[in-house]
Design brief:
Length: about 375
């Protein structure tokens, strides 16, 4: 049985690695794994399951673009031979090779070759020499437990360089005299004075404009940052300036109702929580009486009602930090509050089916 793993364009290095309380110098091979030997890499028992579906498809796309990080391997032994191909060193690693970090990338590379046998994925690797299972397991735990995921707010901030829609929204919030200037978290950690995450800004943007067949609730960060997403096409279907106007109208409503200038921390302010903002955005989106064509228009009576909504009530505060179910409940509470005291022109109907308005009665105008 052939178990050789070839490392092309290889080099030898010495790397000092601290695992637990111990630190040791390791001989390390660096280079690109020869595609035909990918199947010779062993998956040890300490590894997690292989992901399939969307996650693997995204990794395959990254492989085809050549933008995927190196994987980490362990060679349980010291047997290898050196060859030279077109002036470049090739290391043939004869001892068994085990994947320590990068199983999903390795699996995606093998799947690439199954789909298209002519495709040769270039997957880089660091191979530690003369490892054992116990050391590999500790390395696996250290690499995965201490890994911090990049905040979606950072990904959105970075996407402004290639996504004109994100750049438009970013400039609205961070230039000029907009009341929310400096109040949005575009970084990994929310700083003092920042009240709303960039992710929630774009969730609200999608929900507000969902009546136009674009935006809506996104399934993930990629639905926001992709230049081909339905949300990114808002500037074509709604118009750049109108999108800016609608966001200005919505967030000015929040400020005029609850005065964000007095707020330094978002923790105790339900009205800047994502669930509350999305509930209010959904309510406005689903009723035609708040729209003049594609422009969001909020009448004085509704503004006064939103200002008197008991946003600091403990039950409201609890829901504001909740999930989609809490958002639906909040939307119903907002609708009931806006309709309270109205003998005519009560708001009812709508396009979002999970909001029930049983008290509309015969006086509803159907808006």
């Amino acid at each position: 049985m052939n178990t050789v793993v070839k490392i092309e364009n290889g080099s030898l290095d010495v790397s000092t690695v601290g695992i637990g309380d111990e630190s040791k110098d390791w001989l390390v091979f660096r280079g690109v794994i020869s595609p035909e030997t990918l199947t010779n890499i062993v998956v040890p028992e300490y590894q997690r399951d292989v992901l399939i579906g969307k996650n693997q498809r995204l990794l395959i796309q990254a492989l085809r673009k050549g933008v995927i990080p190196d994987i980490v391997l362990g060679m349980r032994g010291e047997k290898y031979e050196t060859d030279n191909v077109d002036g470049h060193p090739v290391y043939q690693l004869a001892s068994r090779i085990y994947v320590i970090d990068g199983l999903q990338r390795l699996s995606a590379a093998k799947r690439c070759m199954e789909i298209d046998p002519c495709f040769r994925p270039r997957l880089g690797a660091m191979v530690y020499v003369d490892t054992d299972e116990a050391w590999e397991c500790k390395m696996f735990e250290d690499l995965n437990q201490n890994r911090v995921r990049v905040s979606p707010n950072v990904l959105i901030y970075n996407a402004r360089t290639y996504n004109p829609f994100i750049d438009t929204v970013y400039n609205l919030f961070e230039t000029g005299n907009f009341i929310f200037k400096g109040r949005v978290q575009w970084s990994q950690i929310m700083k003092r004075g920042q009240l709303i995450t960039a992710l929630n800004i774009f969730r609200v943007t999608g929900i507000i404009h969902s009546k136009f067949g674009t935006g809506g609730k996104t399934s993930g960060i990629r639905d926001i940052v992709s230049p081909e997403s339905t949300m990114a096409r808002l500037m074509e279907t709604v118009g750049r300036n109108i999108v800016r106007e609608n966001l200005t109208t919505f967030f000015n409503l929040i400020h005029q109702s609850y005065n964000i200038e007095t707020v330094s921390f978002s923790g105790k302010c339900p009205f800047v929580k994502g669930t509350f903002l999305c509930a209010l955005a959904g309510l406005l989106a689903e009723h035609d009486c708040f729209w003049d064509g594609k422009r969001l228009v909020i009448d004085k009576q509704t503004r006064r009602k939103i200002q008197t909504f008991p946003v600091m009530d403990p039950n409201v505060a609890l829901l504001a930090g909740g999930n989609h179910t809490a958002e639906s409940l909040l939307r119903g509470m907002l609708l009931e509050h806006i309709n309270s005291g109205r003998r005519k022109n009560r708001i009812g109907g709508g396009i979002i089916p999970d909001v029930q308005t049983d008290d509309v009665g015969e006086e509803s105008n159907g808006n």
